[in-house]
């Protein structure tokens, strides 16, 4: 490693740095919301494996993760339950939150057209 790298003056790039950024986002989001649960989503042909965090009100965030084991380790460190979305599905509160947000967006759009 170069001297600048050892001093932390060189920004890493590539998949590992991206996963580190995603993990940092998940950690910060979980710490700023209450009643957070984690859901591991499988890799698909178009997306990497992801971890979905859902708070008690249904607000959510999603980021890539390197593995299901990594997701479980992160969830344990944050003291939250972690589920396999293929086994348990998505929580109803998340779907309700999305429906409320869609109604609010449509309402704002209509008000913008009328006013």
What do you see in this structure?
The protein has helices at residues 3-6, 15-31, 68-77, 85-88, 92-114; strands at 37-41, 50-54, 60-64, 82-84. Strands 3-2-1-4 form a 4-stranded mixed β-sheet. The N and C termini lie far apart (60 Å). With 115 residues, the protein is α+β, with helices and mostly antiparallel strands. It is built from 5 helices and 4 strands; from the N terminus they run H-H-E-E-E-H-E-H-H.
Layout of SSEs?
Blueprint: H1 3-6, H2 15-31, E1 37-41, E2 50-54, E3 60-64, H3 68-77, E4 82-84, H4 85-88, H5 92-114
Parallel strand pairs: 1-4
Antiparallel strand pairs: 1-2, 2-3
Radius of gyration: 18 Å
Terminal CA distance? 60 Å
- Give a count of the beta strands, DSSP E runs of length 2 or more: 4
Instruction: Determine the mean pLDDT.
Output: 87
Percent of residues in helices: 40-55%
Task: List low-pLDDT spans.
Answer: none
Count of individual helical segments:
5
Main beta sheet: 4 strands, mixed
Gross morphology: elongated
Query: Helix-strand pattern, N to C?
Result: HHEEEHEHH
Structural class: alpha+beta
Strand order of the largest sheet: 3-2-1-4
Give the DSSP E fraction (strand runs of 2 or more residues): 15-25%
Quick overview:
Helix content is 50%, strand content 16%.
What keywords describe this structure?
single chain; 115 residues; alpha+beta; 4-stranded mixed beta sheet; 5 helices; 4 strands; 50% helix
């Amino acid at each position: 490693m170069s001297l600048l790298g050892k001093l932390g003056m060189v920004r890493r790039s590539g998949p590992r740095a991206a996963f580190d950024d995603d993990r940092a986002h998940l950690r910060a989001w979980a710490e700023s919301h209450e009643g957070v649960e984690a859901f591991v989503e499988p890799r698909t042909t178009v997306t990497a494996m992801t971890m979905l965090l859902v708070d008690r009100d249904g607000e959510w965030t999603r980021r890539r993760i390197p593995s299901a084991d990594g997701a479980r380790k992160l969830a344990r460190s944050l003291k939250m339950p972690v589920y396999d979305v293929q086994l348990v599905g998505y929580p109803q509160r998340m779907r309700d939150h999305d429906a409320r947000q869609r109604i609010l967006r449509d309402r704002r759009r209509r008000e913008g057209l009328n006013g």
